Design the sequence.
């Protein structure tokens, strides 16, 4: 802002003060002022509370326009070498392993390239879970994208997991891009059993059936019937 001679008054707006500051900004807008939501780390509104300010403006019939800035999400997608015709930004995965794996199970069948933000210190563990649940997909890990020390590493998920497990946590902001699922033949009975065995060991019959149905595309009725048979043999969860 100093370079461009901008001396307008600055008002912090972030997840910790948004609820308090938002009404004040709306009041200023209705009074005829112009408010610009800016960020010093990429495009505003992407994975931050800025969208709530946009909602509030729309509810008050206030005009909103956008001037996009550097975006790690799109930059990572473009340099990944993976399909760009359909993609899904999934934000940050949960930090706890069980919740993270559950989220990945929900995303496993999405027919699109997946884009994640990830903490550098959790990167290796997240990649291990991705390789385990999403399978042998190609992926790319971008670090400090659009910045001076930009770095991109590409390869199968398992290979990337092994690299960062050995190299340690990278420095800076990390974005992970994962290829969409390969088109496969319908899952075999053995594959359904394997997936159900794993899911039933972690969650309820209902959630296990939902997870396996999403991952395999097999009709829910068939998966549910098989889950009941397996649970009867296994007995109730301890």
Sequence:
């Amino acid at each position: 802002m100093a370079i461009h001679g901008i001396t307008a008054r600055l008002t912090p707006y972030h997840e910790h003060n948004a609820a308090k500051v938002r009404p004040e900004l709306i009041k200023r807008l209705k009074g005829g002022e112009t408010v610009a939501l800016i960020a010093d780390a990429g495009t505003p509104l992407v994975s931050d509370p800025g969208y709530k300010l946009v909602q509030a403006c729309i509810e008050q019939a206030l005009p909103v326009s956008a001037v996009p800035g550097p975006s790690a999400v799109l930059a990572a997608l473009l340099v990944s070498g993976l399909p760009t015709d359909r993609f899904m930004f999934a934000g940050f995965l949960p930090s706890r392993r069980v919740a993270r794996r559950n989220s990945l199970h929900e995303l496993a069948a999405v027919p699109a390239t997946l884009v994640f933000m990830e903490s550098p210190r959790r990167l290796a563990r997240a990649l291990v879970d991705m390789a385990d649940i999403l399978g042998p997909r190609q992926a790319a890990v971008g670090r400090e994208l659009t910045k001076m020390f930009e770095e991109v590493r590409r390869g199968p998920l398992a290979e990337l997991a092994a690299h960062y497990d050995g190299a340690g946590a990278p420095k800076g902001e990390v974005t992970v891009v994962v290829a969409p699922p390969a088109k496969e033949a319908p899952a075999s009975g053995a594959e359904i059993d394997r997936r159900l065995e794993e899911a039933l060991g972690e969650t309820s019959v209902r959630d296990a059936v939902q997870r396996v149905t999403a991952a395999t595309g097999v009709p829910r009725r068939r998966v549910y019937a098989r889950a009941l048979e397996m649970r009867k043999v296994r007995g109730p969860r301890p």
Notes: The two ends are 60 Å apart (CA to CA). Residues 189-234 form one domain. The CA atoms of residues 28 and 89 lie 33 Å apart.
